[in-house]
Amino acid sequence: MKELKAVSFQTRDIARLLKEGTIVKVKPGLYRLANVGEMMIPLPKIKGSGITISQEIIDICRAIPDGVICLVSALAFYDLTTFNPSEIYVAIPNAAKVPKIDFPPLRVFYFRKRFYKPGIEYIAAPNCTIKIYNKEKTICDMFRYRNKYGEDLALEGLKNYLSHKEANVNKLRKYAEICQVKTIMMPYLKALVRQ
């Protein structure tokens, strides 16, 4: 909103653009072009990988500065699952408040400090920094939420992670302890590492 008003847009102009469908309201005061995907604007890639950051993740990270991309969204981001989530999964500190987000669909998880802080990676994107849990923390979080999202999704992530040459079993064990899933995850890890 501030940027639009700085270039002489009035509130009525913004309302008209919303009504026409030219822009989309992400949250109060935050808008983006509706046809970003159609215009083929190149979205940033993470250095050294083929991973592209989606516009929806950028929108959420701008709207919720304390938000960390987590669980199924992080698994999909790292290409560790075949599941394509219909919502963006975001972790925030336990006492934080989330602004009303109109778009994209969002699922918020309130993590206690001991689960929220470890494993956050920062990725530079246009006009914001993306916060996302690293691969190891993401897999351990999936085991923490296995009763809600299914053990098969957590196992798929673990199998795919272990198939990469940069897989680090010691780092995975460390995050399993942090996430308090070591006793649950270790039998699967041992069985998969032996294969």
Percentage of helical residues? 40-55%
Count of domain modules: 2
Total beta-strand segments: 7
The number of helical segments is 10
Poorly predicted ranges (pLDDT <50, ≥5 residues)?
Answer: 37-44, 46-50
Instruction: Name the shape in a single word.
Output: elongated
Mean pLDDT: 85
Query: Alpha-carbon distance between the termini?
Result: 55 Å
SS strand fraction: 15-25%
The sequence of SSEs as H and E is: HHEEHEHEEHEEHHHHH
Q: From the alpha-carbon coordinates, what is the Rg to the nearest angstrom?
A: 19 Å
- Biggest sheet character: 3 strands, mixed
Strands ordered across the widest β-sheet: 3-4-5
Structural class of the secondary elements? Answer: alpha+beta
Structural overview:
By secondary structure, the protein is of the alpha+beta class. It folds into 2 domains: 37 residues, no CATH class; 153 residues, no CATH class. Helix content is 43%, strand content 18%. It has a 3-stranded mixed sheet with strand order 3-4-5. It has a two-stranded antiparallel sheet with strand order 1-2. A hairpin with a 2-residue loop joins strand 1 and strand 2. Helix 4 runs antiparallel to helix 6, helix 6 packs across helix 9 and helix 8 packs across helix 10. The termini are far apart.
